[in-house]
Write a structure and sequence with these properties.
- By secondary structure, this protein is mainly alpha-helical.
- It has a domain at 11-108.
- Helices cover 65% and strands 9% of the residues.
- It is built from five helices and three strands.
- It has a three-stranded mixed sheet.
- Helix 1 (11-27) runs parallel beside helix 3 (58-68).
- The longest helix has 87 residues, at 110-196.
Length: 197
């Protein structure tokens, strides 16, 4: 099967799309065990079982994982030798079919390859619509939260000003109280001196 990929941002994306296309085509003819060998270590690590997908190629990796789930079992690894094209090796019982029969059944026309790209494009459009809806909901919520935040900030500013005014008034009253205590102590001393004469 031959297929031309349109535009890819990186070699990893091209390898991921090639693997995805090959897996989709292979799943039409084989659902047994599979070994997936690739030369992209980052992609192979992202496909490891139990690994959380935080890759820049998130959607492609998730699509590959979904395509791999149609096989009874699979292994994937990256070769650290010279770069090789992706190898999809179905593990089939040799008595069930001949290599020529398998090759004939896997040869699909361009219409079949185009169909898988159209399915992927419609899936991507659906995901994009969901993300846009979430973003719109987030924007609406953020407007409400930002107006509540502005309201809280204005209340906090008013409370801060009131607190500063109270502190200033307390300072003035403390100074005045100290003056009065000084006067009272002097008056008491004057009275004591007057009585002693």
């Amino acid at each position: 099967m031959g297929c031309m990929l349109d535009h890819c941002q990186s070699a990893e994306e091209a390898e991921g799309l090639a693997a995805l296309t090959g897996l989709r085509e292979l799943s039409k003819h084989h659902d047994g065990s599979l070994e997936l060998e690739m030369d992209c270590l980052a992609l192979a690590e992202a496909l490891a079982p139990g690994k959380s997908n935080q890759s820049a190629l998130f959607s492609i990796v998730e699509d590959i994982k979904m395509a791999l789930s149609s096989f009874s079992s699979y292994k994937s690894w990256a070769t650290n030798l010279k770069p090789l094209p992706i190898q999809l090796i179905p593990l089939v019982n040799s008595s069930s079919s001949t290599p020529r029969a398998r090759a004939a059944s896997m040869a699909a026309g361009p219409a079949e390859a185009l169909k898988s790209f159209e399915e992927r494009a419609s899936d991507a459009e659906a995901r994009l619509a969901k993300l846009e809806a979430l973003l719109l909901n987030k924007d609406g919520a953020s407007e409400a939260s930002s107006s509540a935040m502005r309201d809280l900030e204005s209340k906090l500013d008013a409370a801060t000003k009131e607190c500063l005014a109270e502190k200033e008034q307390n300072r003035r009253l403390t100074v005045e109280n100290e003056k009065l205590q000084y006067r009272v102590s002097h008056l008491i001393q004057t009275i004591k001196e007057a009585e002693s004469r």
